[in-house]
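Please annotate the following for my students:
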Amino acid sequence: MRLIDAKGYSDVDVYKRANINRKLFSKIRCGDGYMPSKKTVLALAIALRLNIDETQDILACAGYALSHSVKFDVIVEFFIVHEMFDVFTINEMLFRYEQPLLGQ
């Protein structure tokens, strides 16, 4: 959550760009001990426009990592590396490859 403040974004901008609802965002922001899913962490990384190193760091903080053997991870990593941060465009590609969608 410190990244939101550091990057100068508002909470509303972030949860809308991440395609997550306000209730889930509030649970992440305020919920002690709440652990978001890997999909949610990646959606937030996209919303915050994090580069690949920052994304790997935030995933590691949540106990996750990107894997080149998982199609979902490869697709999301491609968009991050190429600085394409539109969650709806990413979700279109994920849908095309029958992968779970970000922020759902």
Notes: The CA atoms of residues 45 and 54 lie 8 Å apart. The chain has seven helices and no strands.
